[in-house]
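ARCHIVE CARD
SHELF: 3
SLOT: left
DATA:
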Amino acid sequence: MSDIKLYKSPDTAIPPNTLAWNMYGPGIENIGVEGKPEAFPIPEPDSDQLLVRVDAVGLCFSDVKLIKQGGTHPKLYNRDLKQEPTRLGHEATFTIMKVGEKLRDRYQPGQRFAIQPDIYVGGKSTAYGYTIPGGLTQYHLIGSEIFNTDRGADYLIPVDQQFGYAEAALTEPWACVFGAYTQRRRLEPKSGGTMWILGAPGLGETYQFSRGLEHPQTIVLTDVPSSLLGLIKEKTAGRNVNLVIRDGIGPAAFPALSAEITGGLGFDDIVVLNPRSAEDVSEAAKLITRRGTFNLIGQQPLDGKPLIDVGRIHYDYTAYVGNPGPDIGASYGEARNRADLRAAGTAVFVGAGGPMGQMHVQRAIEMNEAGPDCIIATDVNTERLSALEQTLSPLARKAGKKLITFNPSEETISLCDFVMKQTKNAGADDVIVSVPIGAVMAEAAEFMKPDGMLVLFAGVPNGTFAPLDLSQVYLGNAQYTGTSGSRIEDQQAVVAKTLSGEVSPAQAVAAIGGMNAAVEGVQAMMEGRFPGKIVIFPQMDFPLTPLDQLDRVLPDVARYMNPGPVWTREAETALIEERWQA
């Protein structure tokens, strides 16, 4: 039996070799060698490096794209993995074991950290677990790739000693969940950017522009009222703004205009006055650049639903804002564009049975009075939905929340009709979609209130178009948002909320395994075998085991779990004391 104090001690002996699951090409068969991890000598750190022991790694479904694509994955930049392998495991936590001489004023053995994997160097993504080999190893070095970054600081997040190892690793996926409710869209015209204001021939309305005109450097005007042209000239006088007038062009000419003005990169901001044609709006919306805003000003609904690139809402943070007018500037800013769930409202979680979906539901429950009163969790997987209900219902009752589960594949009523019935035909305040299917995203928007929010948490490829009712953006203040990944600030917030007891990351654990079970864990994750997160403990060897079967494999560990079953720090301590060999 091992001593947990010895495990946490900086004086713990370091073995001569480390096991590692290197990845040598696309396909799960190229992880490790013949289905097993390899042993490598543990190197000494250079003066500007740290030697770290990996304590826990969460497995993430976003790795599936990397497994399928191998070196052609966007974050690997056509790398030859046979010559320069990478390693999965971006949800990692580790302990510093040795410190290079130049870093001894900042770090010391025994310190614990989680890592924020979304690392940028020279404006280029060099993500941990992708470009930088990740945590599916027992020991590895970290150095300049973590420290010399665009952030001007490292991407390590200190973790208090009282943290469990699993919950420390899971602060990263939890940061993605919390990040989905922080404002990531740009809600003001871009400073120094290019704005296109698209009107219509004969448009006679008188518009105002209370904010925003101080930002763009180039303003392109198409069929705008003469009064608005005069206002823009007045407000931009003395700024040397480039005004371009291109009247009388239709949707077929929109791409040529973008090519002429932006070199095909797209407009930073597009304003559409009195929008009436869904087709015109669809074509114009294709021309906003990454983090661009699309501002609709009108009092009449469109003649249909524009086809909108829902992949770009998720990955490119394209923002759709608007208001009835006449003030174009009133669309901008935080006041009209919320990002978080509505207090005392009804929130629907589509794909709630998956690991990330369950985490979204848990967050909504743990928001207490700041969050929704009624939570509808829907999934087509009966087993996952049952696990969610078993695990989170006690939490919901304690918080005074109404948790309703619904499986549309087992009911005669559609999800849309079910939600409308539950809300007395008002619709949901918020709909969060964790299913990467464009048609599902479009359907989810159907049962949203006119001023509701649709959060596209799951990513579909850019170029995936779905019909969205953009009329409600300017008539009802509907929100369409999406986020990809997390920022270090999001992860730091999760660490703080965990310490304060506001969030319980380990609640998401569904299965655990030792180092040799890692690839089986990856396969199980890809198959959706478990309803929550799989956590690998690299320093130990035991089979991949769902928590509801742990009493058969590790009964002396299982007895320390909470009902649910729910992973605890006490269970983790028992696991280390039973399975770790000093």
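SLOT: right
DATA:
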Amino acid sequence: MKLYKYLSVILCTFLLVSCQKELDVITNSTGTTTPGGGSIGTSTGDPNGLLIKSVSKGATDSTVTEYSYDAAKKLINMKVYGTPVGGMSINTNTTYVRDASAIITKIIQKSEFMLASGVDSSVSVIHYDAVNKRYSSRIGEISLGGFLSYHDSTIYVYDAAGKVSQTLTYQEDYITGKYSPSMRSDYTYTGTNVTTMKMYNYDMAINSYALMVTYTFGYDAKVSPMKLGIDAPLILEAGTEGTNNIVSTVATSSTPAANFTIGFVFTYNSANKPATAVQTQSSPASVKNVVFHYQ
């Protein structure tokens, strides 16, 4: 579950899951992107405003991600919908419940894929360290048909600079109720940007973590479309929020056949935020276009 979520946020919360083989026109100076599958239009809204929607389109499919905020301009909902991928619906609704101080206390996720699998929802209870002013852990619960629940727990480890350096995930044995190590993610930074992420599975046979995949990221020098602050570890599940936009991802797997690269070519609005992007992935081969809307 955690790996699936992270592969989404590799795309800087774009959630690009469409597929396209050819581009007739990549971008023009106005910021309009016209893929082989048809135009997805021009970036709209106040360049200095909040990101409210991104639209991704390939030759035969498309994805829309919508973002909603409260009066304090804090993210409270993210909705994803579009063309099914591999016969599976991508329609997902994630709600971020906040207290009076704008601290996230609970995350509720519902999706058509989960419902089809007999899962009612995924609910995470969030623990906040008021002394250090950062999130310390989350306890996740998946309800199966309303009669069986599965839990996992994630602990956030911070370095001396206050950045997330490691996450440790434990899973519950639904029979005994005991927790055992499941996954670990290690992060390194250049400035504020995560430059490497190493993901490990816990191997019970050797009672140790085994490296699964290493992600290496490259960035532009422009402005990220979203400012999540201390909420980033919960929303991105990929370390502390960076300042800039990912332009390249190299995935090096313990299984070499699973290696892949992702590259982005952006156009920017007057506030130096992304207006459009063309994303190219090596394996499985795909090209996708995205446009960003602000308010």
